[in-house]
């Protein structure tokens, strides 16, 4: 049976309905109204702002300031939609420097509350008071006495929207939201004095003095426990054109409630990506479920910021968001690394006759730590080598030959000479390489490396280490290559030198390399002697660059006199030196500056990361070098990029092993 389906009639909504829908998007609760009016007062250059509240802002929300006031001529349209003194053309959004610009705040409030405005400018002899309903002025402004500034009174918020009113929290919770908004603006605007008072109470709930400081306002509002642990720093980035001023708590402080105050171009906003990034850094230091106190103020070029993406303006979009978040995360991590040495721990003395702590907590099952969750923290415990390497007889008894704690004897042909004077690097290509390394650093992987416990070597390429309750196998050569690459970048122009005694002839080294299988020489490539002479000429021509920037010296007579020293107690494997010299001549792009430095560092890092396995090798004891030189350098210097995650493999973990044992 067919049924005739009639289409609905499309009607134009009444203007009152449209305005109330728009008002509900902007004014969602009393705290939104307070935020809008606080920003208007700050735009009016106020030095003191007083807020009075009744019933959490639902019965009364009054904001009084001593700013410039509103002209009498403007009172007629001040509550109409899209009336503003801050914007004339759409293109002005690209340069907007004030809080308000759309002209919707007062209009929205007038559609959902009873609104009155009392104002006086400096030029007028008296003030004027006006009342509004649904965006329209009721009657004419009436003259009245008053001081310079504006008093905006909002009564019976959402009186005509009972569903919205019923959905709000209790007056106490709404007042707490109002207090939180005012506190954030008080911290960010220390030159302005703020006062929050409940109607009928003599003492204010919150008060900050005029011309204070951010740290002082934090102490007044949030307490001395936070203020005494604050760490202040600023960062200016020329690449992404932003400036950051931050106050963050050191690792001694933590709380279960998260406090992050974020302002971008003076606007109070939220950024889940930035909050997640900062929390991931603090997760290394703070107990699970605990959070820091963070204040951040970012200043970006106005043309890079889009402020018109959310009705309440609590969200903004800006260019290079991911890169800026990553850069800020690195800055926070760098500051926390320096503050970690100041951590304070407290202990309680047990009175005579008092039971042991373990006895008093034995009944609390939630605090119990199971064996599968216990982490070995003593790095001096037995290593893998003790179970794999043969034991040798020494004067002091039986020991493992491959786990000696004494330093290997240095080769007589190597002598390290420190750089004479530290020089500032100003080449943009090198600075860009450093910034790329820092931007790509994986915080999670860096945290793992900083807290690892070395277990043992498998071979020249692989080693085992423990992190918490997990056992990992890592590609030592890949990590070493990235480490040496980064050390060359950060020691650019300031490399210590490993002096070759006696110097080695470059042409003979090149001939040796052409005779090796690694060079891949064929008869089609030409005569080996001609090739070695040609390669030697390239190296002699580029010798000043290598000497000036990297500490690799080749004399005018073609003698290799020194190599760069990148980490203490490390010597490159001279068995691979001939191939390294050949690759410097053939694989380095000597024509373009940035490519030259990049390819030279990569080739050098590849050479330095090669280890000859076997005791008594030319490079010293490889097991000792990996454990006592390379792995400590990983923990101290390496900023691992995400691609190194593919070079780590989790072999097992304690919870998994316990499950296997339980089945057995």
UniProtKB/TrEMBL annotation:
<dbReference type="Pfam" id="PF01119">
    <property type="entry name" value="DNA_mis_repair"/>
</dbReference>
<comment type="similarity">
    <text>Belongs to the DNA mismatch repair MutL/HexB family.</text>
</comment>
<feature type="domain" description="DNA mismatch repair protein S5">
    <location>
        <begin position="218"/>
        <end position="337"/>
    </location>
</feature>
<dbReference type="GO" id="GO:0030983">
    <property type="term" value="F:mismatched DNA binding"/>
</dbReference>
<keyword id="KW-0539">Nucleus</keyword>
<dbReference type="GO" id="GO:0032389">
    <property type="term" value="C:MutLalpha complex"/>
</dbReference>
<dbReference type="InterPro" id="IPR038973">
    <property type="entry name" value="MutL/Mlh/Pms-like"/>
</dbReference>
<keyword id="KW-0227">DNA damage</keyword>
<dbReference type="InterPro" id="IPR002099">
    <property type="entry name" value="MutL/Mlh/PMS"/>
</dbReference>
<keyword id="KW-0234">DNA repair</keyword>
<protein>
    <submittedName>
        <fullName>DNA mismatch repair protein Mlh1</fullName>
    </submittedName>
</protein>
<dbReference type="GO" id="GO:0140664">
    <property type="term" value="F:ATP-dependent DNA damage sensor activity"/>
</dbReference>
<dbReference type="Pfam" id="PF13589">
    <property type="entry name" value="HATPase_c_3"/>
</dbReference>
<dbReference type="GO" id="GO:0006298">
    <property type="term" value="P:mismatch repair"/>
</dbReference>
<dbReference type="InterPro" id="IPR014721">
    <property type="entry name" value="Ribsml_uS5_D2-typ_fold_subgr"/>
</dbReference>
<dbReference type="InterPro" id="IPR013507">
    <property type="entry name" value="DNA_mismatch_S5_2-like"/>
</dbReference>
<dbReference type="GO" id="GO:0005524">
    <property type="term" value="F:ATP binding"/>
</dbReference>
<dbReference type="Pfam" id="PF16413">
    <property type="entry name" value="Mlh1_C"/>
</dbReference>
<dbReference type="InterPro" id="IPR014762">
    <property type="entry name" value="DNA_mismatch_repair_CS"/>
</dbReference>
<dbReference type="InterPro" id="IPR032189">
    <property type="entry name" value="Mlh1_C"/>
</dbReference>
<dbReference type="InterPro" id="IPR020568">
    <property type="entry name" value="Ribosomal_Su5_D2-typ_SF"/>
</dbReference>
<dbReference type="GO" id="GO:0016887">
    <property type="term" value="F:ATP hydrolysis activity"/>
</dbReference>
<dbReference type="InterPro" id="IPR036890">
    <property type="entry name" value="HATPase_C_sf"/>
</dbReference>
């Amino acid at each position: 049976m067919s049924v005739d389906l009639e289409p609905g009639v499309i009607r134009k909504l009444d203007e009152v309905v449209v305005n109330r829908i728009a008002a509900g998007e902007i004014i969602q609760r009393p705290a939104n109204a307070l935020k809008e009016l606080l920003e208007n007062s700050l735009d009016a250059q106020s030095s003191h702002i007083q807020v009075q509240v009744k019933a959490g802002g639902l019965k009364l929300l009054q904001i009084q300031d001593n700013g410039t006031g509103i002209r009498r001529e403007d009172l007629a349209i001040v509550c109409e939609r899209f009336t503003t003194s801050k914007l004339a053309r759409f293109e002005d959004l690209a340069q907007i420097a004030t809080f308000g610009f759309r002209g919707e705040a007062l209009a929205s409030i007038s559609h959902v509350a009873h609104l009155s405005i009392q104002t006086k400018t400096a030029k007028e002899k008296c003030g004027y008071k006006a009342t509004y309903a649904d965006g329209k002025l009721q009657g004419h402004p009436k003259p009245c006495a008053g001081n310079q500034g504006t008093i905006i009174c909002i009564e019976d918020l959402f009186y005509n929207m009972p569903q919205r009113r019923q959905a709000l929290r209790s007056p106490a919770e709404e007042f707490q939201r109002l207090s939180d908004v005012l506190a954030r603006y008080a911290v960010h605007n220390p030159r302005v004095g703020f006062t929050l008072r409940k109607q009928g109470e003599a003492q204010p709930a919150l008060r900050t003095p005029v011309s204070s400081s951010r740290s002082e306002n934090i102490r007044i509002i949030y307490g001395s426990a936070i203020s005494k642990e604050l760490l202040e720093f600023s960062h200016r980035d020329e690449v992404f054109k932003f400036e950051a001023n931050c106050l963050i708590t050191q690792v001694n402080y933590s709380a279960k409630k998260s406090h992050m105050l974020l302002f971008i171009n003076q606007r109070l906003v939220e950024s889940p990506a930035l909050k997640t990034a900062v929390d991931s850094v603090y997760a290394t230091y703070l107990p699970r479920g605990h959070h820091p106190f963070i204040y951040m103020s970012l200043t970006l070029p106005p043309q890079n910021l889009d402020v018109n993406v959310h009705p309440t303006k609590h969200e903004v979009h800006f260019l290079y968001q991911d890169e800026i978040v990553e850069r800020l995360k690195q800055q926070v991590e760098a500051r926390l690394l320096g503050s970690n040495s100041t951590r304070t721990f407290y202990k309680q003395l047990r009175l005579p006759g008092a039971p042991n702590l373990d006895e008093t907590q034995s009944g609390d099952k939630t605090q119990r730590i199971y064996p599968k969750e216990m982490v070995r923290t003593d790095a001096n415990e037995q290593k893998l080598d003790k179970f794999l390497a043969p034991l040798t007889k020494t004067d002091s008894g039986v020991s493992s030959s491959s786990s000696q704690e004494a330093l290997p004897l240095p080769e007589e042909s190597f002598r390290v000479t420190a750089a004479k004077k530290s020089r500032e690097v100003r080449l943009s290509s090198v600075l860009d390489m450093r910034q790329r390394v820092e931007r790509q650093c994986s915080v999670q992987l860096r945290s793992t490396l900083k807290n690892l416990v070395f277990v043992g070597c498998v071979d020249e390429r692989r080693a085992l280490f423990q992190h918490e309750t997990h056992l990992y196998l890592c590609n030592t050569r890949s990590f070493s290559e990235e480490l040496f690459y980064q050390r060359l970048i950060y020691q650019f122009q300031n490399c210590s030198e490993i002096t070759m005694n006696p110097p080695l002839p470059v042409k003979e080294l090149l001939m040796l390399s052409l005779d090796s299988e690694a060079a891949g020489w064929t008869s089609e490539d030409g005569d080996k002697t001609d090739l070695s002479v040609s390669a030697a000429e390239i190296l002699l021509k580029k010798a000043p660059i290598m000497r000036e920037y990297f500490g690799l010296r080749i004399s005018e007579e073609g003698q290799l006199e020194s190599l760069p020293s990148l980490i203490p107690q490390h010597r490159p494997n001279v068995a691979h030196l001939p191939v390294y010299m050949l690759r410097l001549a053939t694989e380095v792009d000597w024509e373009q500056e940035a490519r030259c430095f990049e390819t030279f560092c990569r080739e050098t890092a590849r050479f330095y990361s090669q280890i000859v396995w076997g005791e008594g090798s030319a490079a010293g004891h490889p097991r000792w070098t990996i454990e006592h030189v390379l792995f400590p350098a990983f923990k101290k210097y390496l900023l691992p990029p995400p691609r190194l995650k593919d070079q780590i493999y989790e072999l097992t973990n304690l919870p998994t092993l316990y499950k296997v044992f339980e089945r057995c």
